[in-house]
Amino acid sequence: MSNILDRFRLDNKVAIVTGSGRGIGAAIAIAFADAGANVVVTARTKEQLENTVAEIHKRGQKALLVVCDVMDAAQREALVEQTLAEFGRIDILVNNVGGSGEIKPTLMTSEEELEACFKFNTTTAFAMSRLCAPHMAKSPDTGAIINISSVAGHLAQPGFISYGIGKAAMNFMTFNLAQDFAPKVRVNAISVGSTLTDALAGIMNDDLEKAMLKNTPMNRLGQPEDVAACALFLASPASSYITGEIYGVNGGLTKTPMEMPRSTF
Ligand SMILES: NC(=O)c1ccc[n+]([C@@H]2O[C@H](COP(=O)([O-])OP(=O)(O)OC[C@H]3O[C@@H](n4cnc5c(N)ncnc54)[C@H](OP(=O)(O)O)[C@@H]3O)[C@@H](O)[C@H]2O)c1
Predict the structure, then answer these.
(1) Which residue from 18, 179, 37 is spatially nearest to 94, judged by alpha carbons?
(2) CATH architecture for the domain at 4-249
(3) Contact 224, 195 (CB under 8 A)
(4) Relative to the CA of 192, which ligand 1 atom is closest?
(5) Is 163 a catalytic residue?
(6) One of 32, 120, 163, 247 is an active-site residue; which one?
(7) pTM of the model
(8) For 94-118, how does the pLDDT look when each residue is reduced to its tens digit (9 = 90+)?
(9) Which residue, 61, 166, 199, 204, has most beta carbons within 10 Å?
(10) How far is Cα of residue 121 from the mean position of the Cα atoms in its chain?
């Protein structure tokens, strides 16, 4: 029997990681390079992507930098075309771009804000999955799509109406695509808890940190590498019998990590 750790390798695979200029996406792109993949790094800010590319090169792997706003259909198509032109195959897609937008009560949230948040978190992942899955199906290996979701998709909390709906939809999309694309492409999601990135730093203060730690049994905030380790498992042949699952990387959270204002009547 071969060494079980060989199943965690991504040698010769090509991965697209959206939003890989910083935070969780950058950690995933670098982890995939550690495991032997060539990685397409993509976001809107070229300078940040260059940092990720440098880390991938340090690991002896190839990187393709594509500046792309995933909200734009033509730019998404160009991203996939450039990937195929450079590497000739796509094995792994990580739909990492997303976020909460402004956190505020339902009665202060407009229909336009709800729809924009849904598009940012869910429609872009749907569109990227539709573009990539046919190319994954042509590959001799099984493809893997990994959706980066959030505890906000299943723990209801005031303030997160748009984000919660977007990530809950992403979770259901994961179940649905897994059934639709099997056995050629596996589709799984990671339900992320409070993780130290720029996005979290933007809303962090001492009170919030205390509240988060109080509700997190593992008594610490997450690091991007905690999510990257799970993404590596879900991208690799180690998880070849797993599809349609949502893995929690959240320190054991079972209740909402923070208190936000409710709607006032
Ligand atoms: N951090 C947490 O606590 C936490 C918790 C639960 C879930 N998550 C989820 O984890 C994912 C990553 O979060 P993060 O905290 O790592 O975020 P982050 O630090 O803000 O990084 C987001 C990445 O996405 C890129 N991006 C943003 N808008 C984009 C667009 N329209 N087109 C292309 N790229 C875009 C950003 O680069 P540019 O701005 O240069 O484009 C950046 O590279 C998100 O889906 C988020 O919902 C995070």
Answers:
(1) 18
(2) 3-Layer(aba) Sandwich (3.40)
(3) yes
(4) 6
(5) yes
(6) 163
(7) 0.98
(8) 999 999 989 999 999 999 999 999 9
(9) 166
(10) 10
